[in-house]
Amino acid sequence: MRGRVIDWRGAGRKGLGEAAIAGARTEEALKRLEGALVRLEAAAELKAEADGTVAALVDDRARLERDRAALAAKLDAAEARAEALAATNREVASRLVKIMERVRRLAPEDGR
After folding, report:
1. What b/e string do you get for 78-87 counting C-beta neighbours within 10 Å, with b at 16 or more?
2. Looking at the predicted structure, is the pLDDT value of residue 89 above 80?
3. Disulfide engineering: 16 pairs with which of 20, 74, 80, 100, CB 3.0-4.6 Å?
4. Is residue 111 one of the residues assigned to a domain?
5. Is residue 1 part of a domain?
6. 55-76 pLDDT tens trace
7. Rounded CA gap, 71 and 79, in Å?
8. Has residue 110 got a pLDDT over 80?
9. Inside any domain, residue 33
10. Residue 45 falls inside a structural domain
């Protein structure tokens, strides 16, 4: 189309002349552009949703890491307490055995 001048004023008189063809091509280009814009908007929405999902996942991971650290600390404390209770239990059992042995030595044997 370089070097040619389209007379838009005469389009009505020429019928499907050059101006009508150019108009049809322009309409086709506008439809393609509109379709591309719709696809671009849809892609932008998907990216925004994906970015939101990624941000939510990052937040969830940080929360889970904090929860894991807190649970690990609680587990360590519970294990330490369980070990202390087990040691106390062993000490009490040992003392009870010693007391029972003393009682047996001091108690008269009456044949029972």
Report:
1. eeeeeeeeee
2. yes
3. 20
4. no
5. no
6. 999 999 999 999 999 999 999 9
7. 12
8. no
9. yes
10. yes
Handedness of CA 88, 89, 92, 98 (dihedral sign): negative
List, for residues 6-50, the tens digit of each pLDDT value: 555 554 555 557 777 888 889 999 999 999 999 999 999 999 999
Which tokens is 20 given?
Answer: 């009508």
Asked if residue 105 has pLDDT above 60, the reply is yes
Domain residues for 89? 8-106
Phi-psi region of 111 (alpha: psi -120 to 50; beta: other; left: phi over 0): left
The count of structural domains within the chain is 1
Q: DSSP label at 2?
A: T
How much is the pTM?
Answer: 0.48
| Cα-based angle 19, 36, 31 (whole degrees, multiple of 5) | 30
> What phi and psi values does residue 63 have, to the nearest 5 degrees?
-65, -45
45 vs 104: CA distance, rounded Å: 85
